[in-house]
What does this fold into?
Amino acid sequence: MLLTAACQREKRDLRPAPTRLAVLGTAARESLLQPGGAQAPLEPVNPAEGNAYSISEGQRLFNAYNCSGCHSHGGGGIGPPLIKDVWTYGNDPANLFDTIVKGRPNGMPSWGGRLPEYQIWQIVTYIRSLNKLEPKSATPTRSDSIEQNPHTLTPVPEPKLQ
Amino acid sequence: MNAFPLLLVSQSALEPGGTNASRILTLGEGMVFLLGIIFVAVMIMAVIPLMRRHRGIEQEPLERTHQPSEATERKLAIVVGSAAGATVVILLGLVAVSVVVGKSISTAGMPSHALTIEVTGNQWWWNVRYMNDDASKIIVTANELHIPVGRPVVIRGMSNDVIHSFWIPGLQGKRDLIPSRVNTEWIQADRPGNFRGQCAEFCGLQHAHMAMWVVAEPEDKFDAWFAHQGQDAVPPATEELQRGQQVFLNSACILCHHIQGTEAAGQVAPDLTHFGSRMTIAAGTLQNNKGNLAGWIADPQGIKPGTKMATVPVKSEDMQPLIDYLESLQ
It folds into this structure.
């Protein structure tokens, strides 16, 4: 059991299945009405859940697609922060997927018809990893970028007040 | 892919096409020559005692062999002393020559008023910008540098992700491209030709498919190329090409790619403004033609596993207009 989990964590799904390639033009369905008999609504499954490669790809895409332009690196700016406890539209993978595909009032654009589905799931997984909603085994413990160690900085003398 | 004539073009430090590569080669040849002589001399001196006749093991040892005469000892001291002295002198001499050559090919020996090109390493392609004080005149291209023959060119090397290394063996030594640093070097081609370059620092899955081309051209040809690259992309001339442009602009392509003169303004993937004029696609992986381009768009992960190029589904009836449009961007 543990072994299978470990494999999932490192698996690199470089060639996503054709169904995952869809670029969702009209996004998710607004109504459950459909031709034919009644069917149970589809339960969307995040294929990238708990996968370290997807989280790192999600981080790359988050910056490449300029999500950081509004949301900063999760702290928020023009757009709301993405590291928080209370989510207006939910933080389940399906909710986040919906938010990205359809957009939300007050500024969040609809990315449906622009992003392939597998990349949206990667971004969803990255956002969840920021909130510790992904397994600890798949979440990086430190940032990729070079950071200055605050302990080595020369303290700047505080200006004296008159 | 077997018919890839570009592969026949030079990527060898033994066939220098530029000032700096010639200096490096001369230094290397000089070292091989000098050290070769020393190697042969040492081997001869090692073999001579072996060739001497020895007394058989069953015989009594010679008397007093462990007590050489004073004259022999003096001779021995002179031989060992002069060999040690020669070693020190030769090593210091080689170090001095390397320092002088290293200095002349480094930016310290760089002529002023050179053309400046900014090369940024990415996983796994090269972003190329011809710098200009006037920002509107900066020219952006990818994976292919054109340089005028006989003029020094400064390369400002940077990286967007991991450490790469910029290496055109026919023109200059290696220069590492390090995130959040700028490393400079200069190149100068002394003859026209195509020089292949290769990332020389392991940078991930597709390190091997991270090549680039330097096209050294006579000044007038370079000026024409330069003037053309500065212009906007050619607008689509026929209905078919217009449809191809619409396919491009209405798909995920524009999130990453930039085509000057259209709405496509992505900044994270190779600039496609003059895509049709380039020799290769996917950083030297494939020759640039319609068949390869269609294969690349349909399944980039099949050609270059791990590439950051997204797999974007294109309807089969849209593929032909799309590749026609991209190849028309001369």
Notes: The CA atoms of residues 158 and 177 of chain B lie 5 Å apart. The interface with chain A takes residues 179-180, 250-252, 255-256, 268, 299, 301-302, 305-306, 308, 310-313 of chain B (CB under 8 Å). The domain at 7-47+73-228 of chain B is CATH 2.60.40.420 (Immunoglobulin-like).
